[in-house]
Amino acid sequence: MQGDIRQPDGIFAAPEFSQLIDFSQPVGTLFVAVLHFITDEDDPGGIVRAFTRHLIPGSHLAVSHITSDGTNPGVIATVQEAYAKASAPAVSRTRAEIRAFFSGFDLIRPGLQDVTQWFPYAAVFRTQQPALRFLAGIGRKG
Question: Cβ–Cβ contacts within 10 Å for residue 28, how many?
């Protein structure tokens, strides 16, 4: 099934959508490396809420996103310049802005962290902080 997450109602209206996903069961919803291509004008928080509003307790939400927190402003500018003429610009957000996507969900361990801190990678790889920081988290709906 194909669709544009900026138009969630079109996705939900597709006949195959309800055939593919049983919302009477816990569902995992993944926004992995996608929300930083959604501008504020396209309301990324509203998009996340649209996709998660029907989730029952026990469902999970996973998000990864580039962050401006701890990232050199020159790196952010380079990324934004590289995507300036693309069909979707790159939008960095703060930890607080990314955390807001998890409204209604309890973050599970280790919380909203740099992707390099997620197990098992943190225990295996001792690397320097990457030039462009990505935060990731998983939330559980209670």
Answer: 10
Q: Is 128:104 a contact under the CB 8 Å cutoff?
A: no
Is the pLDDT score of 124 beyond 90? no
Give the N- to C-terminal CA distance of the chain in Å, as an integer. Answer: 29
Q: Which domains does the chain have, with CATH numbers?
A: 25-140 (3.40.50.150)
Which element (helix H / strand E) includes 30? strand 28-32
Which tokens in the block code for residue 14? 């597709």
- Alpha-carbon distance of 107 to 61, in angstroms, equals 9
Structure confidence at residue 86 (pLDDT):
87
Q: What is the DSSP annotation of 69-114?
A: TTS-HHHHHHHHHHHTTSSS----B-HHHHHGGGTTSEEPTT-SEE
pLDDT digit string, tens, across residues 43-100: 999 999 999 999 999 999 999 999 999 899 999 999 989 998 888 899 999 999 999 9
- The pair phi, psi for residue 74, each rounded to 5°, is -65, -35
Q: Is there a contact between 69 and 95 (Cβ–Cβ < 8 Å)? A: yes
Q: Which among 90, 92, 33, 97 has a CA at the least distance from the CA of 67?
A: 92
